[in-house]
Specification:
Layout: H1 3-33, H2 37-60, H3 66-69, H4 72-124
Length: 138
């Protein structure tokens, strides 16, 4: 296989892996919205696997001549990969914002829980004396 054909094939493999990352990013978005931690973890593992695939393909990428790098097919393939990367980056930023909002909400909820706990402790320290019943005959 020629270096040029191999480079095109590797770019296509990378585009597919970035497409997988985009799909996993959308799954992560759904998991964040549904508070599905196990699904989020599984999507993260899949994302990591896709990143490893991309790095492996990049390491296999052959050196191309100036003319080959300027070839229309190569430029189109690179543009396709670049477009997929930009879509993955968009979904990553959306997920990051959603997680930050979820973290802020969780911190507020924990703060409220701490306030309730302190109030409960305050009530427990109040000493209550035994009741005295008085009848009117004494």
């Amino acid at each position: 296989m020629s270096h040029f054909k191999k480079a095109l094939d590797l770019l296509e493999c990378q585009r597919i892996a970035y497409g997988d990352m985009l799909q996993l990013g959308m799954e992560q978005k759904s998991c964040i919205a549904n508070d599905d931690v196990s699904g989020l973890d599984a999507a993260f593992r899949g994302m990591h696997h896709a990143m490893v695939e991309i790095e492996l393909r990049q390491a296999e990428m052959p050196e191309l001549s100036e003319g080959q790098r300027g070839d229309r097919a190569f430029l189109d393939s690179r543009a396709s990969v670049r477009q997929m990367i930009m879509r993955v980056e968009e979904i990553r930023k959306l997920n990051e914002r959603a997680l930050e909002m979820l973290l802020d909400r969780t911190k507020r909820d924990l703060g409220k829980l701490g306030q309730g706990r302190r109030a409960t402790k305050g009530y427990k320290n109040v000493r209550v004396r035994e009741s005295r019943f008085l009848d009117s005959l004494r």
